[in-house]
């Protein structure tokens, strides 16, 4: 059973990588490769696990397309009363470090991965601070509904390294915020995160 579970987890992880690739890939050849990766994911399960494979296939087909909110995870890191923000390389707008939660990773693992990739910092995840619902915002309409989970984090080590996503990072006070990426982080959300009666849930 442990081997079956391991195979199933590998399948889910490969499927997640393929779907992420299809979402971000621009080159048609890359898209074709990710489509192929997605289509052959079930072959990871060996022939002697046919029954399990059938159950997994049935389950996936049954759930395919069911509309559920997407999950966005963000890190809230403070230093000397200021909050850490990162600058998007393309839009030049700022937001809390984070991004889409990936399948196969826990919320804690997703946060640590995103912070490391976007800031170069290694962090511990302390506690959940807030859950924001993008459907409750009418100022910035979005096609999909997102649950934005914001976690308090503490820095262990590391320093900022420019990467493909972010061009800079810095600590800011609420009185001196840069131009924010309204789809990712708003001034109102940052003010809520300063409250004492947390966690906050919309």
TrEMBL record:
Q: At the top level of its lineage, which domain of life is listed?
A: Bacteria
User: From which residue to which does any coiled coil extend?
Assistant: none
| Listed cofactors | Mg(2+)
Q: Where is the Nudix hydrolase domain?
A: 66-196
**Keyword terms, alphabetized:** Hydrolase
Gene3D superfamilies referenced in this protein's UniProt entry, alphabetically: 6.10.250.1120, Nucleoside Triphosphate Pyrophosphohydrolase
- GO molecular function: any one? hydrolase activity
Concerning InterPro entries, the annotation shows: Nudix_hydrolase, NUDIX_hydrolase-like_dom_sf, NUDIX_hydrolase_dom, UDP-X_N
Q: Which CDD domains match?
A: NUDIX_UDP-X_diphosphatase
Q: What is the recorded name of this protein?
A: Nudix hydrolase domain-containing protein
């Amino acid at each position: 059973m442990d081997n079956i579970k391991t195979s199933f987890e590998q399948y889910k992880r490969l499927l997640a990588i393929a779907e992420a690739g299809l979402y971000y890939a621009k080159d048609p050849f890359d898209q074709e490769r990710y489509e192929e990766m997605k289509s052959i994911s079930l072959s990871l399960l060996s022939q002697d696990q046919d029954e399990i494979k059938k159950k997994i296939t049935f389950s996936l087909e049954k759930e395919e397309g069911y509309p559920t909110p997407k999950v966005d995870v963000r890190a809230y890191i403070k230093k000397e009363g200021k909050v850490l923000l990162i600058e998007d390389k393309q839009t030049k707008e700022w937001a809390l470090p984070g991004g889409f939660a990936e399948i196969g990773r826990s919320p804690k693992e997703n946060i640590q991965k995103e912070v490391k990739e976007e800031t170069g910092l290694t962090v511990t995840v302390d506690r959940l601070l807030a859950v924001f619902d993008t459907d409750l915002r009418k100022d910035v309409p979005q096609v999909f509904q997102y649950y934005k989970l914001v976690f308090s984090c503490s820095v262990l080590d590391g320093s900022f390294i420019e990467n493909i996503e972010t061009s800079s990072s810095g600590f800011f006070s609420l009185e001196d915020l840069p131009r924010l990426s309204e789809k990712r982080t708003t001034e109102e959300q940052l003010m809520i995160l300063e409250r004492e009666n947390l966690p906050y849930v919309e």
